[in-house]
Amino acid sequence: MRRIALAALIAFAGLILYGVSHLPARGGADSPPNTRVSAAGTPNAAAYYVENAYKDAATPNMVTVTLADYRSFDTLGETVVIFAAGLACALILRRERR
Amino acid sequence: MREYYHDRIVALSTRLMAPFIQIFALYVIFHGHYSPGGGFQGGALLAASFLLMRLSIGTDAAQLQFRRSWGTPGSSIGTLIFLGIGMFGLLFGAGYLDYAGIPIGLTAPDLRSLGILVVEIGVAVAVAATLTAIYDDLVGDQPEDHHPGLEHDATATEEADQVESPAAASRQDPGATDE
To answer: ipTM of the predicted structure?
Structure first.
């Protein structure tokens, strides 16, 4: 059983490495994040973020701009998830002291 | 009374480290505009410093730094800061979470920069308080060792003293100290 698991593990690792080897080069000019038009022919959002992050929000770190401005709804959801996790722990585990 | 083993070296060195971790957490939060970092990472660092004190000198002595009862309000306030700054944009006719619509006499990019900072602070407060609250909830009510000056412990300690062996009793019957 252990050998089967090990063989399956190696097979999956090989599959994933094969898939990764076909990714576009990091920072390549023709990789999808760096092209202005996506494969479907629509304007590419990532190129807009890279070009306009500083102009729009006066913040040099474009990751922060994307996280808290362009995609702030996503960050709001993450915060609510953390809040919900804490609330669930409190509801299930907390015992009131009297 | 149950006796805790408080190593003096561990307590002293963590007391020395915790303020620096907190300073670094604030740096990570407020420097997130210029370097990798932000609310989640800084909040996790803040929570790490709180948990470090809880682990080294015990939950009850660490109450002075961050009280057990602050966990849930803190996470609520952090989330509400985020929700509230979003509502501000909506209030002044812009979209939800569009910080540029708030009329306080700054240019739109500066307003967005400020809005991002407020959002990061809200996230940091929520993450720090929530992580500490989860730890406190998981640990639960330990039999108290006495720390004068912490009033909220006084009644629990008195009641626990009336049981012969509070540590053993509370371990077998979790409800024993509550009566």
So the answer is: 0.76
